[in-house]
Amino acid sequence: MSQADCIFCKIVKGEIPCAKILETDTILAFLDIAPVSKGHALVIPKAHFPTILDVDPALGPDILAATARVGQALMDATGATGFNVGLNCNASAGQLVFHAHWHVIPRIEGDGLSLWPAGKYDSMEEMNRLAATIGARV
């Protein structure tokens, strides 16, 4: 997808409307049109980056601050007692819009939402081998 075709870039430019929550010089936050729960919001950098792997690291503090502000505001406004923050990177992980974005999902105890089933490793040795393999690539 080119930047010109990006729905989030069109939202940033004001070409497509959104239910805006927060806007700064670098960040825009708005309600998701297909919410997991009422108040489900998206936090995006205004600049186009297809995935988190492409995001300018200098934006990290802005993204973190906006995500925390939105999460607190969602709890205050909806009565939620917590929230999840999630990001999908690439199609195999469920990314549908290729403009990096963070989901902020309000939660209440017993809401029945399950974002992922718990898995397990066969052994601590398996975990340590995988951790070493991943760590060598960081």
Structural account:
The protein is 28% helix and 18% strand. With 138 residues, it is of the alpha+beta class. It has a single domain (3-111), classed as HIT family, subunit A (2-Layer Sandwich). Strands 1-2-3-5-4 form a 5-stranded antiparallel sheet, covered by helices on one side. A hairpin with a 3-residue loop joins β1 (20-23) and β2. The two termini are 28 Å apart. This is Histidine triad (HIT) protein.
CATH domain class name: Alpha Beta
Strand content: 15-25%
Strand order, sheet with most strands: 1-2-3-5-4
Compute the average pLDDT. 95
Number of domains: 1
| Structure classification | alpha+beta
N-to-C SSE series?
HEEEHEEH
Q: In CATH terms, what is the architecture?
A: 2-Layer Sandwich
Query: Which overall shape is indicated by the principal axes computed on the Cα atoms?
Result: globular
Distance between the termini: 28 Å
What's the β-strand tally?
5
Helical residue percent band: 25-40%
Reported for the largest beta sheet, the result is: 5 strands, antiparallel
The stretches of 5 or more residues where confidence is low (pLDDT under 50) are none
What is the CATH superfamily?
HIT-like
- Number of separate helices: 3
Active site: 101
InterPro entries: HINT, Histidine_triad_HIT, HIT-like, HIT-like_sf
GO molecular function: catalytic activity
Motif (Histidine triad motif): 99-103
Please summarize what this structure is.
The chain is of the alpha+beta class. The protein contains three helices and five strands. The protein has one domain: HIT family, subunit A (2-Layer Sandwich), CATH 3.30.428.
